[in-house]
Amino acid sequence: MPDFSHHPPVCPGCHAAMRTQNSWSDPDYGTIHGVLLICECGLKSDQIIAPSETAAERAARRTAEAIATSLQHLQTLRKNRGEYFSGNARSSVIIDPECH
Predict the structure, then answer these.
(1) Which residues contact 17 (CB under 8 A, 6 or more apart)?
(2) From CA 5, how far away is CA 3, in angstroms rounded?
(3) pTM for this structure?
(4) 23-46 b/e (C-beta count within 10 Å ≥ 16 → b)
(5) What would the DSSP string read from start to end of the chain?
(6) If we measure between CA atoms, which residue out of 10, 6, 28 comes closest to residue 19?
(7) According to the model, what pLDDT value does residue 41 have?
(8) For residue 58, what pLDDT is reported?
(9) SS3 letters for 33-50?
(10) Which pLDDT score, from 0 to 100, does residue 32 have?
(11) CA dist., res. 86 & res. 97, Å (int)
C-alpha cells in the first residue's frame, strides 16, 4: 500500500485530508498501484500511483550528478590552463602565483 504519511492526499471538495480505503497492484504492471481514497465529506477518488525512486536509483542518480560536476570542473580547468601552466601548453609544471 502506498505511504501517504508525509503528504496525505487532500480532498478537492472540502480540502480535508483523505484516507485510503483500498489499494491494489496493476495485474499487467506490478510496480503501479491503484488506490481508492475517501473523504469524510463523502467524496471518493481512485488514483494511479507510480513507483517512487528506489534507494539504488537515487544513489545512481547522485553518482551521475557527481560525475557530471567533476567533468564540468575539468573542462573549466582545461579551458583556463593557460593561466596555470607555464611555457608549452602541454607542460605538466604548475606555476603557483603564491610561491616565489
Answers:
(1) 8, 9, 10, 11
(2) 6
(3) 0.41
(4) eeeeeeeeeebebebebeeeeeee
(5) ----SSS--B-TTT-PBPEEEEEEE-SS-TT-EEEEEE-TTS-EEEEEEPPPPPHHHHHHHHHHHHHHHHHHHHHHHHHTHHHHB-SSTT--PBP-TT--
(6) 10
(7) 92
(8) 78
(9) EEEEEECCCCCEEEEEEC
(10) 78
(11) 11
- The rounded average pLDDT for each run of 10 residues, N- to C-terminus, in the chain (100 residues) is 63 87 80 85 84 75 91 85 54 54
Give the torsion through C-alpha atoms of 18, 23, 27, 28, to 10 deg: 30
Q: Quote the pLDDT of residue 49.
A: 77
pLDDT at position 99, please? 55
What cell was used for 10? 487532500
